[in-house]
Amino acid sequence: MRRREFPSDTVTLARYLLGKLIVRRIGRSTALARIVETESYVQGDAACHAFRGPTQRNRSLYLRPGHAYVYLCYGSCWLLNVSSEAAGTGSGVLLRAAEPLRGLSLMQARREHLRPRDLCKGPGRLTQALRVDRRFDGIDLLSGRELWLAQDGVVVDDIGVSTRIGINRAVELPLRFYVRGNPCVSGPRRLNR
Q: How far apart are CA 151 and CA 137, in angstroms?
């Protein structure tokens, strides 16, 4: 992906990332998955980690668009976000789900009991399958060597919109986007129509 083609508006970026690829290289192995679900966390949003201003934990949200913001959620799983606004503005897009395309054995190494379509179904599973943790916080996802975003020309036409999942503030905002009909999308059926 070229930085000049990368949207610098959070909601636009959340929609733009649908159908794009997340690539993870470990040694000589590569895992590849198509992003099928995202959520926006915008400036002034009470659910955004940057709502109260910059901290040591959320500093990566304030980087220019395209950087990883990785944090531990409820002490149990890592979540991967993409910084989305001009440097100094804390906003981002959570990668909620992806469709595994290549490197299934690499993704299943930690989750062998899951069906392939469930390996990256949800933000915690996505990071487990791709072995993403805090050491990736702050990396440039447009020029990474171990983890990066890519595209292969796929365009998503049928985008669903719903409220976000798993939060307790600003729940009513329609800032979750997904590829309608994709079996790898997470969340309850009532939100995936």
A: 22
Q: Residues 38-91: pLDDT tens digits?
A: 999 888 776 777 777 788 888 899 899 999 999 988 778 999 999 998 898 889
pTM greater than 0.90:
yes
Task: Give the integer Cα–Cα distance in Å for 141 and 128.
Answer: 18
Domain parsing of the chain, residue ranges: 3-191
> Rounded CA gap, 114 and 95, in Å?
19
CATH class assigned to 3-191: alpha beta
d(CA 45, CA 126): 24
Contact 80, 126 (CB under 8 A): yes
Residues 6+ apart with CB under 8 A from 109: none
Contact 175, 41 (CB under 8 A): yes
Specify the DSSP class assigned to residue 121: B
Q: What is the DSSP-derived secondary structure letter of residue 63?
A: S
